[in-house]
Design goal:
Distance between the termini: 24 Å
Number of strands: 2
Structural class: mainly alpha
Strand order of the largest sheet: 1-2
Oligomer: single chain
Strand content: under 5%
Number of domains: 2
Keywords: ANK repeat, Repeat
Shape: globular
InterPro entries: Ankyrin_rpt, Ankyrin_rpt-contain_sf
GO biological process, one term: protein K6-linked ubiquitination
Helix content: 25-40%
GO molecular function: ubiquitin-protein transferase activity
């Protein structure tokens, strides 16, 4: 999914005239699309959703060890492949606070590692830590905006856009204010918002 692939739909979007946040724009556009479908668009707390997120198991906590963390932090895909495919280790690993290695890779902006975890190791994307944050929250929280990583996650599961953590924050509440215009101009205004409208009711 090239984020510019829907540029012919750009006129559907209504770029705001005032200084608004990515979350305000997102909700404005989703409400516009929703009203055409007679649907009410609402955000939902990840901690209140049942049946979508799995609780961390003792096996997953045991798998969260120094060897795995080192491979994630150094973006060592061959080492991750060896751990998973040769040693049969699960990479669906998380610490005692529910923070998974997928959360870690997203927070560091490691797209290559995230792709490996989701596409080769088949780690679940619908994960939440003890504060209710999803991997998309962490991808939005990177020090430097990572549009490619965020777009990759949104294309995988756009419903994550409306999932709130314990503090009531959506993923895009975590992008820095100084980066709002970058996210709006280089991401949201280029995006066919209908294509990322939430799928689950």
């Amino acid at each position: 999914g090239n984020i510019n692939s829907s540029s012919n739909n750009i006129n559907e979007n209504t770029p705001p005239t005032e200084d608004i946040s990515p979350v305000q724009y997102l909700m404005q556009e989703f409400n516009r699309i929703g009203s055409n479908k007679n649907q009410v668009v609402q955000s939902v707390s990840t901690l209140a959703i049942e049946g979508l997120f799995e609780d961390t198991t003792p096996e997953q906590r045991a798998a969260y060890d120094n060897e795995l963390i080192r491979a994630i932090r150094s973006q060592d895909i061959p080492a991750l492949r060896k751990l998973h495919f040769e040693q049969g280790r699960t990479l669906q690993a998380a610490n005692n606070f529910g923070e998974s290695v997928l959360h870690m890779a997203c927070r560091r902006g490691f797209l290559k590692v995230v792709r490996f975890l989701l596409e080769e190791a088949h780690v679940h994307l619908c994960l939440r830590d003890d504060t209710g944050r999803t991997p998309l929250h962490d991808a939005c929280w990177t020090a430097t905006p990572n549009l490619e990583l965020v777009n990759y996650l949104v294309e995988k599961d756009c419903d994550l856009l409306l999932m709130k953590d314990k503090r009531g924050h959506l993923p895009f509440d975590y992008v820095r204010k100084k980066d709002w215009s970058l996210w709006l101009n280089q991401y949201f205004y280029q995006k066919n918002m209908t294509s990322i409208y939430p799928k689950r009711s």
